């Protein structure tokens, strides 16, 4: 009998894939496997029984990788399983930052009792005018599962797409080669793009990669989107640049006291992968990885 622990809820559909050989336990103690979504594991005592951790998501910054390596605990993630959910929220962020959807909705609600609302709206709508994303330049920093989906969708939305990734896979480069201008110099993205979206993992080498210097190169109309991790961006510098009108908007999926409520910041509560489909996909992949490892000793992404 294998014991597994869920450190925070992951989609039940994945857990259904565990057979009678598996028992869900409330504590990590005695467990062979742990399934985790976003809960931080850094301060947890890892029992000697623990053989595998599966993160239902792409980023593994909530897992103590060094401690796991020392103890021989295999760590899995679920790359690509939630990529479509994140991609769709990136576009929602891009469109939200470009069109005054909320202003328009609020105006309609405020004027709901006006019998002539349709007529008044025609006079008011100039106040809610926006800009289109079609024809604009999008810089995609990081061409992994999510970055590639964003880049391809952007092409279909009529955007001119520039991609930057020093570690791009041959397959991704081939798939993108006809549509995305893959550039070797990220500064060109900072200088030239109207929208810049970040899709890299949080590592020591990528921490604050969107630095004050990078932000200083951007256009005053630039809209920066961060659905990867907040620590990738020097957010103090970003907030200062927004306040000074040096960049236009910062869309982030990671709420904190620096950005929420700051001028030009649009912040959501880490919702990128929060769709029924992405949650199911991640949970299913994570459970398969655990099963394949505990039962067969295989280390694969299913
Ligand atoms: C990820 O790293 O893929 C996301 O943080 C997943 C999530 O929202 O749980």
UniProtKB/TrEMBL annotation:
Belongs to the D-isomer specific 2-hydroxyacid dehydrogenase family. It comes from Roseburia intestinalis L1-82. Keywords: NAD, Oxidoreductase. Its EC number is 1.1.1.399, 1.1.1.95. Transmembrane segments: none annotated. The chain holds residues 1 to 302 of 387 of the full protein. GO terms for molecular function: NAD binding; phosphoglycerate dehydrogenase activity. Pathway: Amino-acid biosynthesis; L-serine biosynthesis; L-serine from 3-phospho-D-glycerate: step 1/3. Catalyzes the reversible oxidation of 3-phospho-D-glycerate to 3-phosphonooxypyruvate, the first step of the phosphorylated L-serine biosynthesis pathway. Also catalyzes the reversible oxidation of 2-hydroxyglutarate to 2-oxoglutarate. This is D-3-phosphoglycerate dehydrogenase. It catalyses: (R)-2-hydroxyglutarate + NAD(+) = 2-oxoglutarate + NADH + H(+); (2R)-3-phosphoglycerate + NAD(+) = 3-phosphooxypyruvate + NADH + H(+). The lineage of its organism: Bacteria, Bacillati, Bacillota, Clostridia, Lachnospirales.
């Amino acid at each position: 009998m294998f014991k597994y622990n869920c450190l925070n809820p992951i989609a039940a559909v994945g857990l259904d894939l565990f057979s009678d050989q598996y028992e869900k336990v409330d504590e990590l103690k005695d467990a062979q496997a742990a399934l985790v979504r976003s809960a931080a594991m850094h301060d947890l005592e890892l029992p000697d029984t623990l053989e595998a951790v599966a993160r239902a998501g792409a980023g593994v910054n909530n897992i103590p990788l060094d401690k796991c390596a020392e103890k021989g605990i295999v760590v899995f993630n679920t790359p690509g399983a939630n990529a479509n959910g994140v991609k769709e929220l990136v576009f929602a962020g891009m469109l939200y930052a470009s069109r005054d959807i909320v202003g328009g909705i609020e105006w309609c609600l405020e004027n709901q009792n006006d019998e002539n609302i349709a007529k008044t709206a025609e006079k008011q709508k100039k106040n809610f005018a926006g800009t289109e994303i079609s024809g604009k330049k999008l810089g995609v920093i990081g061409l992994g599962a999510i970055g590639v989906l964003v880049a391809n969708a952007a092409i279909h939305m009529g955007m001119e797409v520039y991609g930057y990734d020093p570690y791009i896979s041959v397959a991704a480069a081939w798939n993108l080669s006809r549509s995305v201008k893959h550039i070797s110099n990220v500064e060109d993205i900072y200088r030239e793009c109207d929208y810049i979206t970040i899709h890299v993992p949080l590592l020591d080498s990528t921490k604050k990669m969107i630095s004050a210097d990078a932000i200083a190169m951007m256009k005053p109309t630039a809209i920066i989107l961060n659905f990867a991790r907040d620590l990738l961006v020097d957010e103090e510098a970003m907030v200062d640049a927004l306040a000074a009108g040096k960049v236009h908007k910062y869309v982030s999926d990671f709420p904190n006291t620096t950005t929420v409520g700051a001028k030009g910041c649009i912040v959501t509560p880490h919702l990128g992968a929060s769709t029924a489909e992405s949650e199911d996909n991640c949970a299913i992949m994570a459970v398969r990885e655990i099963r394949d490892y505990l039962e067969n000793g295989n280390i694969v992404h299913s």
